[in-house]
Amino acid sequence: MDNKEAIIQATIALLRENGENLEAITVREICKSADVGLGLVNYHFGNKDNLIELCVERIINGIVENFQSIREKTKDLPPFEKLEYLGNMTLDFLFEHYAVSKISVLTDMKNPKPNDNTHRTYAAYLPLVAACRPDWDESTVKRKTFCLISVMQQTFLRYETTSTILDIDLSKKENRKAWHTQILHDILEVSE
């Protein structure tokens, strides 16, 4: 493994180990764990923030790739229930891994890339939205899927404000689940 990859792997391990306490991860600790010189973080990544963003992207990529196994688990469910299950799982992950998820979502918004995590999430949801509403044309399915992903990201990023406005505590799993179900009904234009 080359120095750059050793730094990435060490940082990912430290991110997993430190959970939400990202400030506790120092460049010195990363380099010690990777067994590389201190200047190599700046040489390869410019700064610690760029390195963290790259590592977060890799972590989230692994989760998004897991969507395929989730499809297997839900293959016998009706399309709406599949979408509901995936959405609840996504929101739970975002809230349970708040710091990492926030970096991922904000990085995608700040520096959109053709295959970033937001795009990959959109691509995973698209066929489920289409299956829920086979009567919609492709353009409508794309637009509604975009709306769904945007609402989920905003629900996560602005959950305190949203909780206040809607008088619902979105930090609680059962409230998020009810909120997500309502949003699905609203966006998909289906009755409860």
From TrEMBL:
GO molecular function annotations of the record: DNA binding
Keyword field contains Nuclease: no
UniProt KW keywords: DNA-binding
Q: Does the keyword DNA-binding apply?
A: yes
> Where does the HTH tetR-type domain lie?
1-63
Instruction: Please give the DNA-binding region boundaries.
Output: 26-45
Recorded hits in PROSITE patterns, A to Z, give: HTH_TETR_2
Name the InterPro entries on file.
Homeodomain-like_sf (IPR009057), HTH-type_Tx_Regulator (IPR050624), HTH_TetR (IPR001647)
Q: Which domain of life is it from?
A: Bacteria
Q: What is this protein called?
A: HTH tetR-type domain-containing protein
